[in-house]
């Protein structure tokens, strides 16, 4: 989609309450079918740079 790793992190902004982790699967016929795929290693590196929320103990 053209964004850099720093752009992806900046888009999140603020404090996270939960961390949904999803990776785009390119499907023929979709708008992003011809997009350059994100390498699995870059995907994991991006997740590793996210500010994770503190663990909340159950009450």
Number of strands: 0
Cα shape = elongated
Q: In DSSP terms, counting alpha (H) and pi (I) runs of 4 or more, how many helices?
A: 2
Average of per-residue pLDDT values: 77
| Range of strand content | under 5%
Number of domains: 1
Main sheet overview? none
Distance between the ends = 41 Å
Proportion of helical residues:
25-40%
Regions with little confidence, pLDDT below 50 for 5+ residues: none
InterPro entries: Aldolase_TIM (IPR013785)
Protein name: Biotin synthase-like enzyme
Keywords:
59 residues, mainly alpha, Biotin synthase-like enzyme, Aldolase_TIM
Question: SSE layout and pairings?
Answer:
Elements: H1 5-12, H2 40-48
Task: Write a structural description.
The chain has helices spanning 5-12, 40-48. It is mostly helical. The chain has one domain. It starts with a helix and ends in an 11-residue tail after the last helix. The model has no long low-confidence stretch (mean pLDDT 77).
Q: Concise description?
A:
This protein has 59 residues and is an all-alpha fold. Helix content is 29%, strand content 0%. The protein is built from 2 helices and no strands.
